[in-house]
């Protein structure tokens, strides 16, 4: 979808989609009614109403699969962020309980730096689909390296070190997952398919009801409104980390170590 449309607030997104759909519908209506008065009127008026249900069914199936995929991406994005936050919180708790003092302070500081960089830099990049796996989280990588090089004393610290390393590795993996998911979007092919099917259905409605202009206008208006709602639903959730319904870094900020 066009980038500026994705960045619109929901209110303006509704206005743009309904206005655009209305313009297309009006154009289809006027074009068909004009042709219906010419030499091809008999061919147009002879079109069977039986073609409308299959077109509507195909449109509904395409939209259903598309929206299900968007909801799946959004759910996966939330899961990845929740997993990252949970793993970071576990790392803070383990370091506090098993490695008090300088090790704890160092790990807490690195985790806090990672969370701030994720919220301030990575989230805007993910919203624009510019985030890539080539850029690593340096603070989190340093925290993992520091945890691996700790010198535990006693069986308890050995076990805690293993848990600390695992938690940091899980956080890194969750970060990778959210960056991968941030690249998902509705491709132009899918947008073209949805819009083309909508236009074809509008044409079919206009053809079938070309003898009754008011009936055609009402039927096309109802279907156009449904199409506009569909386009708003898709565009509002086109990117998992952008827009008013996108996943925010709030959960990560909640586990930001105090005093960091």
Tell me about this structure:
The protein has 260 residues and is mainly α. It has 2 domains: 1-38 and 188-237, no CATH class; 77-185 and 248-260. It has helices spanning 3-6, 10-35, 41-45, 52-98, 102-127, 138-148, 154-182, 188-208, 213-236, 250-254. The longest helix has 47 residues, at 52-98. The protein is rod-shaped, with a radius of gyration of 27 Å. 33% of the residues are buried.
Q: Largest sheet at a glance?
A: none
Multimeric state of these chains? single chain
Q: How many helical stretches?
A: 10
Q: Indicate the radius of gyration in whole angstroms.
A: 27 Å
Number of domains: 2
Number of strands: 0
- Round the mean pLDDT to the nearest integer and report it: 89
The ordered H/E elements are HHHHHHHHHH
Principal-axes shape call: rod-shaped
Structural class: mainly alpha
Measured distance between first and last alpha carbons: 40 Å
Helix content: over 70%
List the uncertain runs: none
Percentage beta strand: under 5%
């Amino acid at each position: 979808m066009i980038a500026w449309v994705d960045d619109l607030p929901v209110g303006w997104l509704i206005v743009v989609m309904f206005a655009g759909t209305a313009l297309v519908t009006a154009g289809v209506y006027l074009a068909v009614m004009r042709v219906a008065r010419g030499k091809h009127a008999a061919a147009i008026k002879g079109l069977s109403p039986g073609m409308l249900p299959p077109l509507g069914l195909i449109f509904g199936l395409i939209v259903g699969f598309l929206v299900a995929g968007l909801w799946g991406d959004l759910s996966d994005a939330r899961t990845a962020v929740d997993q990252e936050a949970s793993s970071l919180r576990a790392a803070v708790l383990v370091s506090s309980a098993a490695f008090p003092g300088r090790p704890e302070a160092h790990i807490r500081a690195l985790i806090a730096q990672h969370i701030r960089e994720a919220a301030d830099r990575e989230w805007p990049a993910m919203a624009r689909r510019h985030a890539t796996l080539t850029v690593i989280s340096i603070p989190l990588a340093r925290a993992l390296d520091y945890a691996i090089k700790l010198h535990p004393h006693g069986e308890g610290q050995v076990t805690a070190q293993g848990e600390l390393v695992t938690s940091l590795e899980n956080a890194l993996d969750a970060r990778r997952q959210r960056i991968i998911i941030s690249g998902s979007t509705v491709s132009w092919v899918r947008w073209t398919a949805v819009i083309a099917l909508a236009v074809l259905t509008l044409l079919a409605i206009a053809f079938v009801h070309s003898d009754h202009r008011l009936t055609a206008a009402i039927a096309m208006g109802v279907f156009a409104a449904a199409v506009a709602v569909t386009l708003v639903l898709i565009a509002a959730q086109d990117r998992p980390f952008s827009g008013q319904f996108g996943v925010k870094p709030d959960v990560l900020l909640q586990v930001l170590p105090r005093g960091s």
